[in-house]
Hints:
Layout: H1 11-19, E1 31-32, E2 39-40
Antiparallel strand pairs: 1-2
Amino acid sequence: GLADTKYRPCPLLTKYVEAGWLGRKTSRGFYDYRGDTPVPTR
């Protein structure tokens, strides 16, 4: 079922969601969308 550990999200995704980094919706995520061209975040 969904409680199985193999379906758990990776820790990085959990941190991004907790920080409110939801991608284009919030202009931050794996890329920084605040400028004209998306830039990868580190």
